[in-house]
Specification:
With 147 residues, the chain is α/β, with parallel strands linked by helices. Helices cover 13% and strands 14% of the residues. It contains three helices and six strands; from the N terminus they run αββαβββαβ. The chain has helices at residues 57-60, 93-98, 131-139, and strands at residues 75-78, 90-91, 110-113, 123-126, 128-129, 143-146. The strands form two sheets. It has a three-stranded parallel beta sheet. The radius of gyration is 32 Å and the shape is elongated.
């Protein structure tokens, strides 16, 4: 095979359609836009969601819900998920994110929940702890630090 023998795959290259280049092309004169009307004009057509003057569906449907401006955004982890570390390790939000235990860094910090069992004494730095999480960590000899 040489460079002058090479050609693109069958169907990979299509010839461009040249509109408005005579009636024989099939797309001459009006270039496939029909006769007159809004869609025949250069900037013709209607905007997205326009229903011909009828009140659009989006405006006919009622509004629902609201956004709570006081909502807290925590990254959440259970104490049962922390057994992968060695004993005596200091754990914070960045450490958990680097080790892919949590998927995001919470805007308001880390919240530790009490689901699961903890087997190693570790130090955990977080913004919030549930009572059961605090009890399980301290029962095994670990430390809880509220940031």
């Amino acid at each position: 095979m040489k460079l002058h023998n090479m050609s693109p795959a069958e169907g990979a290259v299509t010839k461009s359609v040249r509109k408005g280049r005579g009636t024989a092309s099939g797309l001459g004169k009006t270039s496939g836009r029909g006769q007159k009307g809004q869609n025949a004009r250069k900037s013709g057509g209607v905007r997205l969601g326009f229903e011909g003057g009828q009140t659009p569906l989006l405006r006919r449907l009622p509004k629902r819900g609201f956004t709570n401006i006081f909502k807290k955004d925590y990254a959440i982890v259970n104490v049962g998920d922390l057994n992968f570390v060695e004993e005596g390790t200091v754990i914070d939000q960045e450490f958990l994110f680097e080790n892919r235990v949590i998927g995001k860094i919470g805007k308001d910090g880390l919240k530790v929940l009490g689901n699961g069992e903890l087997t190693k004494a570790i130090t955990i730095k977080a913004s919030k702890f549930t009572n059961t999480a605090k009890e399980k960590i301290e029962k095994i000899g670990g430390k809880v630090e509220v940031l």
